[in-house]
Amino acid sequence: METQTLTALLVALAIGLGLGVLVGWLGARSRPAADATRETLVAALEQRAGDEAAVREGLERLHDQMRDLEHARATWQGQLSQQVDDMRATADTLRRETASLATALRKPQVRGRWGELHLRRAVELAGLVDRCDFTEQARLDGGALRPDLVVHLAGGKSIVVDSKVPLDAFLDAARVDPSDRDADAVRAAHLDRHARQLRTHVDSLAAKSYWRSLPESPEFVVLFVPAEAFLSAALEADGDLIDHAAGRQVVLATPTTLIALLRTVAHGWTHEALAGQAAEVQRLGRELHERLATMGGHLDRVGRSLRAAVTSYNQAVGSLEGRVLVTARRFGEMGVAHGELPSPGQVEQVPRTLGAPEFEALEVDSLAERDDEALAQQARPGAARRARGA
Fold this sequence. Notes:
- Keywords: Coiled coil, DNA recombination, Membrane, Transmembrane, Transmembrane helix.
- One of its GO terms (biological process) is DNA recombination.
- InterPro entries: DNA_recombination_RmuC (IPR003798).
- The protein is mainly alpha-helical.
- 72% of the residues lie in helices and 5% in strands.
- The chain is built from eight helices and five strands.
């Protein structure tokens, strides 16, 4: 029994020793792999730590940007709210002013004055001058007719412009609430009434026949509609309104078309002024030419007088030197007088003749006059001899 136990113990020790040797050998072989694994794990942990730091930094920047965006959004929202409030206040003010304007335009006097202001603005934009190119509130037929504007055309002609347009129906159409169930029908009814009012005003304006009170005036009158919307609304309801007005010598004009018409008038005045200036230049040129001719005649006569004076002077010098001084020098030879007598020289230069083509006729007249003077001088000695003989 003891032998078996000892044998088993020895066998166990041998097995343990073998297992120890095997474990040592296996441990020695696995140490490099463990070191490599540990290094790889450490590197992975370090890389992960770096990635986490980068992510953390990116998150911090994103947080800062989100904070800035939130601040900017709050600022923009505040500004937008302020702008909305301002727009709401402006809309309310505009609504009140529009209502006040609509109420005021229902009064004929206010509506007439408003139309006259728009008319004058259009005239000023066209470049016309008050009291020169147009006249406001002119009286015709002894005050029976008083158009809003009389535009003076070049050549003494005139065109009458009227700005009194009915707007009650148009204002009623503008006040229709679009949310009403019958809004379209009500608005159309008001616009039909607006077109009828404008057609009636065209007929009344045509009946006045302003052109009969103005000499040489074109046979039509201009009806000024202060806004494009007024005329377009009437044409929407009555498409034949323009033809109806044209058949009654009435021209419907909005600010755009009236400015174009008045600029044509201003262009005509410009050409009229240029034509007047050209005529004045022609008159001044003719007058200057005549005065130059007269002045040339005067200069020619002065030149002839100077030439005659030079000729007479030279003849006197010749007589002095050839006759008088010869005798006077004998007094010096006889001892009666002392000193030399001065001997004046002759004038060598003669006045320049007028050689321009414009003065050729004057030169011919000058030659004829000189011939007449020469014949007269030749005739005078013979007449004197005949007188002495008598």
